[in-house]
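ok trying again, last paste got cut off:
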Amino acid sequence: MPYLQSNSTSSLCQQQCNDGFTTNGDNNLVCVSCDKSCTQCVDNGHVGDRSRCTVCAPGYGYQYTALQQCLQNCSMQGFYESSPKICGLCNANCLTCSRSASNCTSCNIQNPQYRFLYNFQCIQTCPFGYTNVGAQCVKCNSTCSTCTNTTTTCTSCDTSSSNKYFFGYQCLKTCPEGT
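nice, full thing came through this time. structure:
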């Protein structure tokens, strides 16, 4: 079955698409250029073949092998460098990650179950003694047992510490005069 190969001046029917082209799953066998990240791409008759590289284009020296994609680097959102020049995909709850799929460096805040970063993990709520500042869990000030919004806005005090009196969102050593 002939393939239609076109350029800016003519169209030809031939046995297969030229290097750098694919049908990208087109049933009419019209050849289209590979994605800019590929010098050559697969032609397996599937939509998306134009982005499945067999040879990476200059400037796209990193590979995400699971989908045969070529990337400029692995620091793009959702990827990390799993080995030299090979990119891995971060876990779905990580927006960005480093060194491993589950070592999150930022969280996908669109997912309410995993929106706060704590010890390189994305969690639903910050643990006791921490508050969320932006999208990260940050330890409360040493005088606070619990805090909210900022590390110094105490919501409770550690009664075993010297600053055990709660007043005005602070933990104090003594109660203020007149209270």
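cool. The chain has a mean pLDDT of 89. The first strand starts at residue 3 and ends at 6.
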